[in-house]
Amino acid sequence: MSVQVIQRNGKPEWAVIPYADYLQLVEQAEMLQDSLDYDQAKAAVESGEDEIIPAEVVYAILDGKSPVLAWREVRGLTQRQVAEKAGISVPYLSQLEAGKRTASVKSLSAIARVLQVTLDDLAR
Predict the structure, then answer these.
(1) What band does 124 get if pLDDT is binned at 50, 70 and 90?
(2) Which of 15, 21, 28, 70 has the greatest count of CB atoms below 10 A from its CB?
(3) Is the CB of residue 105 less than 8 Å from the CB of residue 96?
(4) What is the DSSP letter of 100?
(5) HEC sequence for 35-83
């Protein structure tokens, strides 16, 4: 790599490099950032701070199941268990899962807490 250093008052102020070298440096910097991001995400999963969305949740939602139902099934909980812990009725939960009703933010927050997911995980 050829570098032209431009000085001001005897101190380096600018480094001029060929454009191809610049593009290579940018690509290497992006790859390094990707590696750092991966390591951070992996550490979050290993520490329990974050989790990977199970494939069965993704496929269930893509197939039209409600996110609430998909997560409830993955967590191995019954409607009654989720409803009781969330402070809502079983029929209301059933209607949410069937897409016949829209949940209030308060109810959806309670369900998210029970299922140990974020509100975003339950949004359609």
Answers:
(1) confident
(2) 70
(3) no
(4) S
(5) HHHHHHHHHHHHHCCCCCCCHHHHHHHHCCCCHHHHHHHHHCCCHHHHH
| Residues present in the chain in total | 124
Whether the CB-CB separation of 72 and 82 falls below 8 Å is answered with: yes
Q: Please state the pTM of the whole predicted model.
A: 0.67
Residue 17's CB is within 10 A of a number of other CB atoms, namely 13
Mean pLDDT of 66-86: 97
pLDDT above 80 for 1: no
Cα angle, residue 39 at apex, residues 34 and 43 outer, rounded to 5°: 150
**Which of 1.10.10.60, 3.30.470.20, 3.40.50.800, 1.10.260.40 would CATH assign to domain 55-122?**
1.10.260.40
Q: Which amino acid is at 109?
A: S
